[in-house]
User: Fold these one by one.
Assistant:
Number 1:
Amino acid sequence: MIKLIDANQFSKGFEKQGIKLFTLKNKNGIVSQITNYGGRVVNLFTPDKEGLFKDVVLGYDTAKEYLEKPDHFFGAIIGRYGNRIADGKFSIDNNEFLLPKNEVENQLHGGNKGFHTIVWQATQISASSLELTHFSKHLDQGFPGNLEVKVLYTLTENNELQIEYSAVSDAKTVINLTNHSYFNLSGNFNKSIENHLFQINATHYLPVNDKMVPVGVLEDVTNSPFDFKKLKKLEHVVDKEHQQIELGSGFDHNFVLDDVNSGFVAKAIDENSGRSLEVYTTEPGVQFYSGNHLNNLEGKNDILYQKRAAFCLETQHFPNSPNQSNFPSTLLLPEEKYFSRTIYKFSVYK
């Protein structure tokens, strides 16, 4: 039984801010509700092997809760720059840009007033598609250029949540957009995702320093807990004795995708429910986060989210790329079109 959130109750008290809740459906019964506050995926109902639909993403029941606790990033569009920029600064053509820091010495996920905190202009194009747009002014959160951004959510008949990002700037800037949905394929947020199986199409990952910023080298995953080339149960590796695991209290690392042209990024499976998630993208990397810092966070239906209650697979360019010349560039030239696509495809594992 799918229990949707009432749109009026969700936005109650925040109608003047223009906050709304939209419902997307496909012909197979998959349903997702998305709010234009932060462009957040609020819920996503998919079937298990018995045909039972359950919500598989973390979040809150009301706009009020999202506004009060924006920096858990549940389900949000992340920008202008997903992940970390070291020391809150970077340069373009020898011009240094200083960014507000919101994670000790780093800027994380676009800053305290990043795209996860703004009310997007929303147009529901069809029963299965929602378009969000935003105009980000020059030096918004420290980033140069007036930036016009569009994000298109589509729930396809192939049981995919497709997210297409596009943007144009009037000056040189950097950009790295992603989505920060937290998934638990069991549909039971009281359960850990440590029994999920994971596969990531990557032979290398980016080791980090004690500030969780990549040190600038690519590390081979062979003979390490980071080897997810074949399906592997998370509980077998997430607490291994390994310096990088200890730094992140689990996985919170960018994996360098082997074949960008293939589009395939990763797979996650919950064997008990039979739910399977495949991720595809045009991006060169994916941040695998194993929910290490979910500690007594009250979410939907008064559930307290605990450590490893969910995982993230955030498709992206690499963290701190503006300060690492050997990483794929995130530079966007004036009037050049930025485009990125990510697909979260759901099926039943057999």
Number 2:
Amino acid sequence: MTILTDTAALIAVLGTAVIYGTDIFCALVLRPAATGASDASVADLLGRVHAYGDRRLPVPGVLAIVATALAAATDDSTPGRTGGGIALAALLLWLAIYLRVSAPINKRLRAAAASHTVPADTRQLQERWDSVIWPRALLQTIALTGLLTLLIS
């Protein structure tokens, strides 16, 4: 491994770890808590959570993807390139799920919180969002595992 590969891999691990931790927290804590909350509470609180998350989390997410690609491309070992490739594929699939399912729901809940309204389909929105949080968390786990393989190879 080179200094460039090592640095990129470390940045990728740290960026991925931020998103991994967020998704695991949402799967284990936020999802079941929202299930028992009123629609008004879900729309208001989760709309505000998404307002902050959607504004702040793209930085570590994008850094993770770019750094993963760089680390995988510059690693000189087969296990490292393989781990990096798997990590990159998992991160890109995660991004596709996020953009297709989670982001539009986040946008609706952010708008509801900002306007102090409760969408009539709040429960359905949250159920749809919940339906992809475990797959997202699993993809982050795969990505982090691949990156750690790259880092230690």
